[in-house]
Amino acid sequence: MSPATLPEPENRERRRESCYTVLVPDIVLTTLNARYAHASFGLRYLMANLGELASRAVMLEFDIKQPVDVVAQRILEQEPKLVGIGVYIWNVTPATELVRELKRLRPDVTIVLGGPEVSYETEVQPIVQLADHVVTGEADLAFADLCRQLLADRRVLTKVIAADLPEFATSSKPNRVGLDLLNRAATIASGTIALPYDLYDHADIAHRVIYVEASRGCPFKCEFCLSSLDVPVRNVPTDEFLSAMDGLLARGVRQFKFVDRTFNLNLNISRAILQFFLQRLSDDLFLHFEMIPDRLPDALRQLIAQFPPGMLQFEVGIQTFNEEVSALISRRQDVTKIVENLTWLREQTGVHVHADLIVGLPGEDMASFGRGFDRLVALRPQEIQVGMLKRLRGTPIVRHTEPWGMIYDDAPPYEVRQTKLIDVATMARLKRFSRYWDLVANSGNFVETKALLLEGGSAFTGFLALADWLYEQFDRAHAIPLQDLAAAVMRFCVEKRGIDAVPVANALWRDWRRGGRGDRPAFLRPYISDEDARVARRAKANSLPARQARHLSAS
């Protein structure tokens, strides 16, 4: 996140409130974010499209670690008539308790739900039973329409309201910094979506992730993904979008996280966006894009290669290298092109590559996953996100449940527990593998040491042995202090892998310092001299996110 210091807790609480706070709001828009740094993009879209109701609304953000009774109290202090709550896979459990508490204390308050978690299978969800209304799908415009009816005391008989698919404007807008209220009102009146970027306030810009989107939807049909249901792809008019980005840059935003599922689908638009940022380069600029991995033509490569190292992060969904499994889950990808493109990105650019693989797909056993993992490691992405398959509500992955013996957790995040090819114990082992890989390999805290761990033989087999051993030592795969983890990694290298202690200690010491640490851990003192420790300097401050900065410093 931003290198700026986070606000004190009491100020941070106050800063969750939108700059659109009114004295006695009729509408409270709220959600429970995964953490403070994650500003809710969805709430801002809803607020931006309230039209004349915006002056009667307030936006309050909380996070899932806050006590539900405190959240309910803060909401009810506003004395609202209507509360709109964004519900997602990460917050549905506390959000259910929040709705129950709000209804217990103020049964007269109308509660409207929205978000991907309540857009499908509504009939079986406790949170839906507790609420008054649910708007399914993209609620940018439908929520405002419902609010108008409810606040006008019109009786709305339908509980679950399916939103019509909203569109972005098709004509160009005047090139201005952001949208003023009159322009926004005109956009809403035309039946198209108004953009929300002026609703990021100064605290958001200083301390939180700034989410942006140039398009919505996905043309692909991968059966595990909710985006496969979001068709057609709709693009924000490029001039309007870039004007909004210019406004964010002028206000100090330097880190942009694009949530487009397929940023490089429309090459004209992706080129225009990259050219826009190339013309406005600064040392602290950082751009995150989700890319189609087998679509990287020369026209796009020429622009990508011009960005300084570390300034671009590409999230590329590989998911599986097993082509039979890909066909089974309706995932179209050209593996040869993927290999070619990832090789080019690592050899010819400074792009930080974050690649995704999924454990537990129907038709894939552990041996197949391991081969895919080894193949991806050989392509040298800085990070490999090993994710467990989730049965997201509404996704067609359910058609494989019976033939492939798929069993999932009933509770969020609905992760797979076993399949016909991977039993429950092995799945748990692979989940620990995923967590330890994130702690050791993805974190950037063991960049040089990771190379020692993976050299010789199968990277998957070698790291699985480390994961099994770490679990024996700690009996958990979370809440492990970094110094304890580093000491355990050294013991494994020396005692289990038979690597000489001196090169391991030197690699760990360089990794330790790479993270900006100048202290000498006790387990390294026999190998790192007092003189070496005295001349150690803290790593130079880097404006990139910390994790990416650690990887970059070792490139």
Overview of this structure, please?
The structure is a single chain. Among the domains are: 9-162, 3-Layer(aba) Sandwich (Rossmann fold); 483-553, no CATH class. The longest helix is centred in the last third of the chain and has 19 residues, at 424-442. It has 555 residues and is of the alpha/beta class. It is 39% helix and 14% strand. The chain is built from 21 helices and 16 strands. It is globular, with a radius of gyration of 25 Å. Strand 11, helix 11 (298-304) and strand 12 form a beta-alpha-beta unit. The chain starts with 8 loop residues before the first helix and ends with a helix. The strands form four sheets. A six-stranded parallel sheet has the order 2-1-3-4-5-6, with helices on both faces. It has a six-stranded parallel sheet with strand order 7-10-11-12-13-14. The chain has a two-stranded antiparallel ribbon with strand order 8-9.
Could you outline the blueprint of secondary structure elements for this entry?
Layout: H1 9-15, E1 27-33, H2 41-48, E2 57-63, H3 68-76, E3 82-86, H4 92-105, E4 110-114, H5 126-130, E5 133-136, H6 142-151, E6 160-162, H7 181-189, H8 202-207, E7 210-212, E8 215-216, E9 234-235, H9 238-250, E10 255-258, H10 267-278, E11 286-291, H11 298-304, E12 312-319, H12 323-328, H13 335-348, E13 352-359, H14 366-378, E14 383-388, E15 407-408, E16 416-418, H15 424-442, H16 447-454, H17 459-474, H18 482-496, H19 501-514, H20 530-535, H21 546-553
Parallel strand pairs: 1-2, 1-3, 3-4, 4-5, 5-6, 7-10, 10-11, 11-12, 12-13, 13-14
Antiparallel strand pairs: 8-9, 15-16
Helix pairs in contact: 3-4, 10-11, 15-17, 16-19, 17-18, 18-19
